[in-house]
């Protein structure tokens, strides 16, 4: 997944 | 991953562990809002459903599992193991006044009208206000144990650091998520009054007590 999809954040 | 994001995550983790240890060591959940803790468990459950659908990184997966695990452990300690010490009379915030409007808002304003995305949005909105039962409880009893204030400080600091993370990401990655940012600002603002009391009282060695 791209870092930019936002869901990498907790 | 930038320094604000990482320290934000660690601050969040510290808050969760401080609370668990406080309850475990003192064998008591006095002064802790069980309702806020149920809301946080609900927040993590609805947000981290993507554990089943996508893999982002080992760090991401581990932290999500730790957050969810600790959230349910905290709820278990409050409502089962140390239930006798739970101060239900002072934990009288009506959570339906938060959950229902937040549920409605997440259906109305989201990035994509799909079940997972709506649940993610719900979790973001709910997290921003999930601490209110705890703050309400403190305002009702007029005081908080010092260890509880450390917990709240770490929890507030986490979202404040995320704001800097989003500023960073906007400038260096051109990334921004309006839902997360607006909810994050609301969440951080809710802690401002508490931050002030923490700095002016707790850091000077005094107990946090509100004027009658």
UniProtKB/TrEMBL annotation, chain B:
Keywords: Cytoplasmic vesicle, Endoplasmic reticulum, ER-Golgi transport, Membrane, Protein transport, Receptor, Transmembrane, Transmembrane helix, Transport
Transmembrane segments: 65-82, 119-138, 150-168, 174-199
Example of a GO MF term: ER retention sequence binding
Topology of this chain in the membrane: Multi-pass membrane protein
Protein name: ER lumen protein-retaining receptor
Originating gene: LOC102215457
Record's signal peptide: none
Family affiliation: Belongs to the ERD2 family.
Location relative to the cell: Cytoplasmic vesicle, COPI-coated vesicle membrane; Endoplasmic reticulum membrane; Golgi apparatus membrane
Pfam families: ER_lumen_recept
Organism annotation: Pundamilia nyererei
Annotated GO biological process: protein retention in ER lumen; protein transport; vesicle-mediated transport
């Amino acid at each position: 997944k791209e870092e930019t999809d936002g869901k990498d954040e907790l | 991953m930038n320094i604000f994001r990482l320290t934000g995550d660690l601050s969040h983790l510290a808050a969760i562990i401080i609370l668990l240890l406080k309850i475990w060591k003192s064998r008591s959940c006095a002064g802790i809002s069980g309702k806020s803790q149920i809301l946080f468990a609900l927040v993590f459950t609805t947000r981290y459903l993507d554990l089943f659908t996508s893999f982002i990184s080992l760090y991401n997966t581990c932290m999500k599992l730790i957050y969810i695990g600790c959230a349910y452990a905290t709820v278990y300690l409050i409502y089962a193991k140390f239930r006798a010490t739970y101060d239900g009379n002072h934990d009288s915030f009506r959570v339906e006044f938060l959950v229902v409007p937040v549920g409605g808002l997440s259906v109305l304003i989201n990035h994509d009208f799909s079940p997972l995305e709506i649940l993610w949005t719900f979790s973001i909105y709910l997290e921003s206000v999930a601490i209110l039962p705890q703050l309400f409880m403190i305002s009702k009893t007029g005081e908080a144990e010092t260890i509880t204030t450390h917990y709240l400080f770490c929890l507030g600091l986490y979202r404040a650091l995320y704001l800097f993370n989003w500023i960073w990401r906007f400038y260096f990655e051109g990334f921004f998520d309006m839902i997360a940012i607006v909810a994050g600002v609301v969440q951080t603002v809710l802690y401002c009054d508490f931050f002030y009391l923490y700095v002016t009282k707790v850091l000077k060695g005094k107990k946090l007590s509100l004027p009658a």
